[in-house]
């Protein structure tokens, strides 16, 4: 299935944005959700330790990640429309950070706090199809509409027809290809198809990669007060 751009450029973009929204649905839910993830770093083929997180996400995209083990246990990461914050246990308050700050290995904060790309990027479908991971794929070129986005440009390849994400490339403002990601085949969880594994590759230091495994996810109503940087020091 191929997508041709309309003469006025608007219909094609509308179609591409709809495809992007469908692709987002494989990685993020439309309701308040609690998700357990595990990040494993790999260097030169050597697998490192695993770090586990509990991630709370609201329907509006606000996200709170809690570190569950390892030397960083208890650290909290918050992302809202106002920005990103980081809290270290036994300190008085959270500090503001950039979404490019590394969470673990090749995974940066925005990789788990900015999963609704359709709300912050404008998509354009490249005419025709290509082959990615042995599947017919459509390329979407994403340009940031939010100046706070870590990546001003993303290339995303999705399965033609189903919009399942296959691969992404992330570019810096300079145009440099900084990192890439490969998405696993979706599986059915609680009646919906979801991606359970994403592998991020460092495109500068190519021997480095990190794997995010989604261990479990469930709908859970989350009080809005938990997504306030002024309350991150509570319960510590």
TrEMBL record:
InterPro entries recorded: TP_0789-like
Domain spans labelled Uncharacterized protein TP-0789: 67-232
Name of the molecule in the record: Membrane protein
Species classification: Bacteria, Pseudomonadati, Pseudomonadota, Betaproteobacteria, Burkholderiales
């Amino acid at each position: 299935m191929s997508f041709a751009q309309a003469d006025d450029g608007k219909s094609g973009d509308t179609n591409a944005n709809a495809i992007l929204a469908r692709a987002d649905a494989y990685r993020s839910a439309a309701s308040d959700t609690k998700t357990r993830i595990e990040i494993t770093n790999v260097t030169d083929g050597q697998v490192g330790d695993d770090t586990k997180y509990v991630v709370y996400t609201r329907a509006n995209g606000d996200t709170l990640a809690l570190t569950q083990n390892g030397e960083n246990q208890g650290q909290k990461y918050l992302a809202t429309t106002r920005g990103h914050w980081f809290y270290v246990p036994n300190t008085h308050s959270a500090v503001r950070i950039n979404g490019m700050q590394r969470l673990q290995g090749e995974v940066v904060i925005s990789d788990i706090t900015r999963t609704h790309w359709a709300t912050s990027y404008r998509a354009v479908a490249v005419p025709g199809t290509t082959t990615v991971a042995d599947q017919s794929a459509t390329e979407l070129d994403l340009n940031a509409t939010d100046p706070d986005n870590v990546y001003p440009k993303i290339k995303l390849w999705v399965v033609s027809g189903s919009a399942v994400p296959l691969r992404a490339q992330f570019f810096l403002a300079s145009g440099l290809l900084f990192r890439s990601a490969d998405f696993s085949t979706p599986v059915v969880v609680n009646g919906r198809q979801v991606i359970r594994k994403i592998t991020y590759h460092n495109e500068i230091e190519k021997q480095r990669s990190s794997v995010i495994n989604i261990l479990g996810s469930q709908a859970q109503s989350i009080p809005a007060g938990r997504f306030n940087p002024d309350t991150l020091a509570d319960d510590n």
